[in-house]
Design goal:
The chain has 203 residues and is of the alpha+beta class. A hairpin with a 3-residue loop joins strand 4 and strand 5. It contains five helices and 13 strands.
């Protein structure tokens, strides 16, 4: 079925496909079906069925969305279930910062933060780069000592860690970061911070 889509959604879908190609499938927004399986498992407090996960992975590989920017349409196929938040948050930040700068031309600097994703332009207080603290994934409490602090000036950043969100089943925490190749949570105390010129790329 063909859907008329907003230009912004088509841009996000194009970006998502570009990053799927660049990462050789390590980033794949088609992973929605696998995420749904783990969410349901967490709600039932029992591990998901291996065969269901494997079937979801097979479906992910066969599904997709065909984007036609000239006609502003998107055509999903294969029962695709998208999870675009992994790139859409950064895209929204970029648009919000551009709108803020256009509306407030006299502002010398600003920092936008939507929880793990930041976009900055200009300098912060005292003419210094905006200071961003990176939590220690082994000690993520709000008042715990930071792992490190970085400065942002005309840059964006995104931090994601498996400790912060995920699925709690039978007394064990599983990361919300799923491997598209297996449909299963990434293991270990994973955390990454990426700094880039725009938020969509850092995301």
């Amino acid at each position: 079925m063909l859907f008329r889509s907003a230009p912004e959604l088509l841009e996000v879908l194009d970006l998502a496909e570009a990053w799927r190609s660049r990462t050789r499938g390590a980033f794949d927004v088609r992973i929605g079906q696998a995420i749904a399986i783990w969410r349901e498992a967490a709600s039932k407090k029992q591990m998901p069925n291996d065969s269901a996960i494997d079937a979801a992975v097979a479906a992910i590989r066969a599904a997709g969305v065909q984007v036609d920017a000239s006609n502003k349409t998107a055509t999903p196929h294969g029962g695709v279930q998208l999870a675009i938040d992994g790139i859409a948050k950064g895209y929204i930040l970029d648009k919000a910062l551009a709108a803020a700068r256009k509306a407030c031309t006299d502002v010398a600097g600003a920092l936008l933060d939507i929880g793990g994703d930041e976009a900055a332009f200009g300098k912060g207080p005292g003419g210094k780069p905006w200071r961003l603290g990176i939590a220690n994934p082994q000690q993520p409490a709000d008042n715990a000592k930071l792992l490190l602090a970085i400065g942002l000036a005309d840059r964006c950043s995104a931090t994601s860690g498996g400790y912060a969100r995920g699925f709690d089943i039978a007394g064990k925490h599983y990361s919300h970061i799923l491997d598209p190749g297996t449909g299963r949570p990434a293991s270990g105390a994973l955390q990454a911070t990426v700094v880039a010129k725009d938020a969509a790329r850092s995301e």
